[in-house]
Amino acid sequence: MSRNNDKNIKKHNDKLHKAQDKAKNAKIALKEKRAIIIKQFNASKAQENE
Predict the structure, then answer these.
(1) 3-state SS of the chain?
(2) Fewer CB within 10 Å, N or C, the chain?
């Protein structure tokens, strides 16, 4: 019997896709946080220049 049966392949792919989704969501969250920080920084710089 082979180890590469449908059940094991599905389990592996589910685990892989879950990890990929987690990494993708972390990257998106980091991008959003960075955008907020940049907006705040630019707003404070604009106030200093006025």
Answers:
(1) CCCCCHHHHHHHHHHHHHHHHHHHHHHHHHHHHHHHHHHHHHHHHHHHHC
(2) N
